[in-house]
């Protein structure tokens, strides 16, 4: 209510000052921009959400955010990458309404896989949206007063830029920039990808051959068609654009990697022979180690989101079937409630479980966040071909992709076949889809999908715990003794401790403390109607409460002697702090 | 001037005499004595190079001693590891004496093998052996909330009877689940409820319950135990293990070092786990699972063969050797997650002792006490003595039990022989290392300047070049064969070829057809298997 008044007064004041301005800033800004519903129409931080940003541009935007929203944004480096780049984290909250670390928080990161760069944009979009809408929308203003958001647009800065600038396919590199001996010959990175035609994308090589089984589609010569089993073709597929540099008969077989930063996390970690892509031990990857250390230092994080591509999925764990028992019914109910709502407003996205709907993996980030820290975590596979024509043509459907490039991107997504004199294969043709097409959103789809995913995170963050002391009842027991019963209410879906957290006692209990009263005994109340209580014999003034469930209450009781005013405080790592005063 | 010179000589003399007393000392060395011996061993001209990999939370060095000659990183290597458990002070001495004997008496072995000796992986915990308050410590100096109640280390050991050692305490209670052992009532054993046995004592470590949670000594003042925090079967969230595997800097420093040393083919660990007195068991069902929990069958066969050699070399007969690995330990990691041939032994155990009737005692503690008595060791047990326990007012609480360290570490006078035998065992293991050789080399002239070269690459060793599990590991290189001919002169055969493994006393046949004359060099091998070279005249 107060905020509304404030906005109103400011707007009125501005209108009065300018005099000539007849329309409210809330509709037309700067005499130029008319608001499209739901989007900041004259943001303090100007960003075009229809292109991808390099590290340099990202840092400029983030610094601009801090400059324009000093009370809402802080920027810090949480560590260095393998190549010495900073891993930046934006903390977004209303810093005037309580300490960031005292509020329930959400962590959002992108780009753990280097080629999956739209996660970076979506993460930053979410931060931008929140700070620009603060003070404009009550819901967002309230959210930033209650919650803290930690945004790490890229947790893989080295290869974030290398994907853009280096010779890559749409699927490479998956790892960061560390180099290992992928082919087991004792040499490191001696046969990387080769951009033979110098266009920045690694595409395909084909060769004319009377024995080949491919022809070019006469209607669209970009398209290769496999001939019938009893028919003669004109071309053979050689494979990926590149050279055999080390003379072992294989092309591009030892470049950067291989490792998968998403097999590097410390819940049920397994070595490479069990889980391909794992390195030496959990958090071998320095970027992951920096994230882990940040998470360990911020026990207020109760919700997390990581971004991948692609396929249009809202994923939860378990990553591995062997971990099925880790995700129990109590927590799955909460995962389901949030994700099923997300499915409704994210067309083309399906809510899935990693191990059974995708693949079974160990050492994934989302499993550590949940299994190792008890944090409710989703991993979204961004971009789905459904967004092209609102049809389910499936992943990598060549016909559909050709159609997109013909009618929507007008040839910008494809490298036309062009002859090349290859030192090892002779005359070949090089061509195919560019690295920025397929897994990545084309520009015109970026903002829309960023917004929908941001909305999903906002819903998720909204449901982190919100605690209050709702009722305090006193009863005179006679003899100078008084019974005080307090009800602590969590008015959101997520509990202060997930059941995984409770199982392993990952986070400390919540403390409900009374001060200003002489406490004779303290209890948690199991059933108020039938007076079933559990006594805490040691330090009864500071009651340990294992959990405050989502949309639920916990009741505590003290027997105190003497009168006077007292206060009750609730201190929860993931649920924040709240207090009540008589 | 003369005076100074003289005192320098005297000083040197003193140093020397000190060094010799060190050798003849009566007890396990202190950390600074260990450091001195390591420094002495790695002086200039020594084949041993000493490096500090990192410092622990407690500020102690983690040392590695690399001992070798020539192209050290391309000779098969053996890692020898001590101090895997902080209370197992014997293991540090065994690793150290192995290093000393290797350098002084067996340096000829360095022609073929490189050794990596990690004398002490738990220096923070090791210190407790010499501290004012002695107890069997496992954890380093990190601050850890072992019982996960929000308070750090609030319930450590407490020397209730002020005797300078931590033993046990027993509380007389009809609700107790422990009872005295028939054959030696000083020992308490768990009452077997299934046999209707009734307990009379509750038993705890000598400690308090400062946080009044009803548990004693459940949140120790030590940190993370090296031997409980590795990645294989990591016991997440358990006391001394931590929140994720390899969380400690010394663990990562050591593992990083090992991962960078591609030539290590085997690891010998001195720790309580033992697969040398008897090999690990093969379990076909567990060996087929995605997460492997049984050694693979061919590797069990190797383990069995090496175990045989161990039992021939070590005079002490196995007794009560039931520990074949514990969750998160190093010895199992070396095989299951590092793919190397991993051998472990405590080095010593209390031999079998008989009771008055000549019958075995069964219970390991009773056996130990009986053996100690035979040996005339009178200072191994603290008799149960009543104390006033501040947290258990009015209850009969007694402190006592077997003294710390004595069950795992023999009297120091016995160490020389143990070290000698174990040194011999490790040297025998080195003699078995993979050994690649070329045999049956043939050059056949084909017409028009073409020559066919054929050779057998033979592994002249009872060990394969790769453990069966190692074949699956990216952390062991394949056997690589290189021929010095240019690609254009290779009519047939590969310039570089990779071979997964060459079995024990097995061969693989290689052949090329090459163009031209002169001589050709062929090289085959991998760092951990050594290299064979061949020069062929065309």
List the helices and strands and how they pair.
The complex is a heterodimer of chains A (582) and B (538).
Chain A (H helix, E strand, L loop, with lengths): L1 H17 L9 E2 L3 E2 L20 H14 L4 E8 L5 E7 L12 E6 L7 H16 L4 H9 L1 E5 L4 H9 L38 E5 L5 E4 L2 E7 L8 E6 L45 H12 L3 E9 L3 E4 L12 H17 L4 E4 H5 L6 H8 L3 E7 L3 H4 L8 H10 L6 E9 L3 E8 L9 H20 L4 E12 L2 E10 L8 H6 L5 E6 L2 E10 L4 E4 L6 E4 L6 E10 L5 E6 L3 E6 L1
Chain B lengths: L1 H22 L7 H11 L6 E8 L5 E7 L9 E5 L7 H17 L8 E5 L4 H4 L41 E5 L5 E3 L7 E3 L10 E5 L43 H12 L3 E7 L13 H5 L8 H17 L16 H7 L4 E5 L18 H11 L6 E7 L9 E6 L12 H17 L4 E10 L4 E10 L19 E5 L6 E3 L3 E4 L7 E9 L3 E8 L3 E8 L1
Parallel strand pairs in B: 3-4, 3-9, 9-10
Antiparallel strand pairs in B: 1-2, 2-4, 5-8, 5-12, 6-7, 11-12, 13-14, 14-18, 15-17, 15-19, 16-18, 19-20
Structure notes:
Chain B: This is Zinc carboxypeptidase. Chain B: It comes from Belliella buryatensis. Chain B: Its cofactor is Zn(2+). Chain B: Keywords: Carboxypeptidase, Hydrolase, Metalloprotease, Protease, Signal, Zinc. Chain B: GO terms for molecular function: metallocarboxypeptidase activity; zinc ion binding. The complex is a heterodimer of chains A (582) and B (538). By secondary structure, chain A is an alpha+beta fold. Chain A has three domains: 36-162 and 261-385 and 443-462, Aminopeptidase; 179-255 and 397-433, no CATH class; 467-581, Immunoglobulin-like (Sandwich), CATH 2.60.40. Helices cover 25% and strands 28% of the residues of chain A. Chain A has helices at residues 2-18, 55-68, 118-133, 138-146, 157-165, 286-297, 329-345, 354-358, 365-372, 386-389, 398-407, 443-462, 499-504; strands at residues 28-29, 33-34, 73-80, 86-92, 105-110, 148-152, 204-208, 214-217, 220-226, 235-240, 301-309, 313-316, 350-353, 376-382, 414-422, 426-433, 467-478, 481-490, 510-515, 518-527, 532-535, 542-545, 552-561, 567-572, 576-581. Chain A has an eight-stranded mixed beta sheet with strand order 3-4-6-5-11-14-12-13, sandwiched between helices. In chain A, strands 17-18-23-20-21 form a five-stranded antiparallel beta sheet, with no helix packed on it. The longest helix of chain A is centred in the C-terminal third of the chain and has 20 residues, at 443-462. With 538 residues, chain B is an alpha+beta fold. Chain B has three domains: 2-129 and 228-348 and 410-431, Zn peptidases (Aminopeptidase); 168-222 and 351-402, no CATH class; 436-537, Immunoglobulin-like (Sandwich). Chain B has ten helices and 20 strands. Chain B has helices at 2-23, 31-41, 89-105, 123-126, 249-260, 284-288, 297-313, 330-336, 364-374, 415-431; strands spanning 48-55, 61-67, 77-81, 114-118, 168-172, 178-180, 188-190, 201-205, 264-270, 341-345, 381-387, 397-402, 436-445, 450-459, 479-483, 490-492, 496-499, 507-515, 519-526, 530-537. Chain B has a six-stranded mixed beta sheet, sandwiched between helices. In chain B, strands 8-5-12-11 form a four-stranded antiparallel beta sheet, with no helix packed on it. In chain B, strands 13-14-18-16 form a four-stranded antiparallel beta sheet, with no helix packed on it. In chain B, strand 3 (77-81), helix 3 and strand 4 (114-118) form a beta-alpha-beta unit. In chain B, helix 2 (31-41) packs parallel to helix 3 and helix 7 packs across helix 10. The longest helix of chain B is centred in the first third of the chain and has 22 residues, at 2-23. Chain B is elongated. The relative contact order of chain B is 0.12. The chains are: A alpha+beta (582), B alpha+beta (538). Chains A and B meet through loops of A and helix 5 and strand 17 of B.
């Amino acid at each position: 209510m107060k905020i509304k008044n404030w906005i109103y007064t400011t707007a009125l004041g501005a209108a009065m000052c300018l005099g000539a301005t007849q329309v409210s800033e809330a509709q037309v800004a700067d005499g130029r921009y008319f608001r499209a519903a739901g989007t900041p129409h004259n943001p303090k931080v100007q960003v075009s959400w229809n292109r991808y940003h390099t590290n340099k541009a990202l840092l400029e935007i983030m610094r601009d955010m801090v400059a324009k929203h000093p009370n809402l944004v802080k920027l810090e480096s949480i560590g260095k990458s393998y190549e010495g780049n900073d891993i930046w984290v934006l903390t977004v909250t209303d810093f005037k309404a309580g300490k960031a670390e005292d509020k329930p928080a959400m962590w959002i990161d992108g780009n753990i896989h280097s080629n999956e760069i739209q996660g970076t944009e979506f993460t930053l979009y979410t931060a931008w949206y929140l700070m620009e809408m603060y003070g404009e929308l009550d819901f967002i203003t309230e959210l930033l007063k209650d919650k803290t958001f930690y945004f790490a647009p890229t947790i893989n800065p080295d290869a974030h830029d290398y994907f853009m600038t280096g010779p890559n396919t749409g699927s490479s590199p998956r790892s960061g920039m560390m180099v290992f001996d992928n082919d087991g010959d004792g040499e490191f990175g001696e046969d990387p990808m080769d951009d033979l035609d110098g266009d920045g994308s690694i595409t395909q090589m084909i060769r004319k051959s009377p024995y080949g089984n491919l022809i070019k589609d006469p209607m669209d010569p970009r398209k290769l068609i496999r001939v019938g089993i009893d028919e003669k073709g004109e071309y053979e597929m050689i494979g990926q654009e590149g050279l055999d540099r080390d003379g072992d008969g294989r092309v591009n077989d030892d470049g950067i990697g291989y490792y998968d930063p998403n097999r590097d996390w410390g819940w049920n970690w397994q070595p490479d022979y069990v889980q391909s892509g794992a390195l030496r031990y959990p958090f071998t990857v320095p970027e992951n180690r920096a994230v882990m250390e940040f998470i360990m230092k911020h026990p207020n994080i109760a919700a997390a989101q990581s971004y991948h591509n692609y396929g249009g999925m809202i994923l939860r764990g378990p990553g591995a079937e062997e971990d099925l028992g880790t995700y129990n019914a109590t927590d799955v109910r909460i995962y389901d409630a949030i994700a099923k709502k997300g499915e409704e407003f994210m067309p083309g996205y399906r809510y899935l479980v990693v191990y059974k709907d995708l693949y079974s993996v160990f050492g994934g980030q989302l499993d550590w966040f949940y299994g190792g820290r008890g944090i409710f975590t989703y991993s979204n596979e961004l971009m789905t071909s459904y967004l092209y024509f609102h049809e389910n043509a499936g992943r990598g459907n060549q016909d559909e992709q050709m159609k997109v490039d013909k009618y929507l991107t007008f040839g910008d997504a494809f490298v036309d076949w062009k002859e090349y004199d290859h030192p090892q294969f002779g005359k070949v043709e090089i061509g195919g889809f560019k690295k920025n097409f397929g897994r990545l959103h084309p520009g015109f789809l970026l903002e829309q999908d960023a917004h929908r995913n941001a909305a999903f995170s906002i819903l998720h963050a909204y449901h982190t715990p919100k605690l209050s002391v709702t009722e305090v009842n006193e009863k005179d027991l006679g003899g100078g003794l008084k019974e005080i019963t307090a009800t602590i209410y969590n008015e959101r879906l997520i509990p202060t401790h997930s059941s995984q957290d409770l199982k392993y006692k990952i986070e400390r209990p919540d403390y409900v403390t009374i001060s200003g009263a002489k406490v004779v005994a303290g209890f948690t109340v199991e059933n108020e109607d039938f007076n079933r209580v559990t006594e805490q014999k040691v330090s009864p003034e500071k009651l340990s409460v294992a959990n405050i469930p989502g949309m639920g209450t916990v009741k505590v009781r003290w027997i105190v002697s003497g009168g006077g005013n007292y206060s009750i405080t609730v201190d929860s790592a993931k649920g924040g702090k709240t207090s009540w005063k008589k | 001037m003369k005076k100074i010179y003289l005192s320098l000589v005297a000083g040197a003399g003193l140093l020397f005499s000190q060094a010799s007393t060190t050798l003849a000392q009566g007890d396990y060395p202190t950390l600074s004595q260990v450091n001195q011996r390591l420094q002495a061993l790695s002086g200039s001209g020594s084949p041993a190079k000493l490096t500090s990999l990192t410092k622990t939370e407690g500020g102690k060095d983690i040392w590695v001693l690399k001992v070798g000659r020539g192209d050290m990183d391309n000779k098969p290597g053996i890692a020898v590891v001590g101090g895997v458990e902080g209370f197992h002070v014997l293991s540090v001495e065994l690793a150290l004496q192995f290093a000393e004997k290797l350098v002084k008496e067996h340096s000829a072995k360095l022609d073929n093998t490189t050794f990596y000796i990690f004398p002490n992986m738990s220096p923070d915990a090791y210190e407790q052996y010499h501290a004012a308050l002695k107890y069997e410590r496992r954890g380093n100096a990190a601050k850890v909330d072992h019982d996960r109640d929000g308070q750090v280390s609030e319930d450590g050991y407490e020397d209730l009877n002020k005797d300078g050692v931590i033993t046990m305490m027993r509380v007389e209670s009809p609700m107790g689940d422990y009872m005295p052992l028939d054959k030696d009532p000083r020992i308490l054993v768990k009452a077997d409820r299934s046999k209707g046995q009734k307990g009379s004592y509750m038993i705890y470590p000598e400690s308090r319950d400062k946080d009044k949670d009803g548990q004693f000594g459940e949140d120790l003042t030590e940190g993370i135990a090296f031997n409980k925090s590795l990645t294989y079967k990591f016991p997440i969230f358990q006391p001394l293990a931590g929140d994720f595997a390899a969380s400690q800097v010394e663990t990562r420093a050591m593992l990083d070092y090992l991962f960078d040393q591609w030539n290590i083919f085997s690891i010998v660990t001195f720790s309580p786990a033992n697969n040398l007195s008897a090999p690990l068991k093969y379990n076909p069902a567990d060996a087929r699972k995605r997460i492997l929990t049984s050694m693979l069958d061919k590797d069990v066969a190797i383990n069995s063969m090496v175990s045989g050699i161990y039992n021939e070399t070590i005079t002490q007969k196995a007794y009560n050797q039931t520990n074949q690995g514990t969750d998160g330990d190093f010895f199992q990691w070396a095989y299951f997650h590092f793919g190397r041939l991993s051998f472990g032994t405590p080095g010593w155990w209390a031999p079998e002792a008989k009771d008055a009737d000549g019958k075995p005692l069964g219970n390991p503690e009773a056996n130990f006490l009986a053996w100690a008595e035979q040996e005339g060791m009178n200072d191994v047990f603290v008799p149960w003595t009543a104390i006033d326990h501040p947290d258990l007012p009015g209850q009969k609480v007694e402190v006592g039990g077997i003294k710390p360290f004595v069950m795992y570490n023999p009297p120091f006078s016995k160490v020389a022989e143990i070290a000698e035998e174990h040194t011999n065992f490790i040297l025998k293991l080195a003699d078995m290392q993979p050994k690649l050789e070329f045999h049956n080399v043939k050059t056949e002239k084909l017409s028009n300047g073409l020559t066919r070269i054929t050779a057998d690459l033979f592994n002249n060793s009872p060990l394969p070049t790769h453990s069966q599990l190692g074949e699956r590991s990216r952390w062991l290189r394949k056997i690589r064969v290189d021929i010095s001919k240019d690609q254009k002169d290779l009519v047939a055969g590969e310039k570089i070829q990779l071979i997964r493994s060459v079995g024990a006393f097995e061969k693989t046949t290689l052949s090329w057809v090459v163009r031209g004359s002169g001589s050709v060099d062929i090289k085959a091998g991998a760092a951990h298997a050594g290299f064979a070279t061949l020069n062929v005249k065309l």
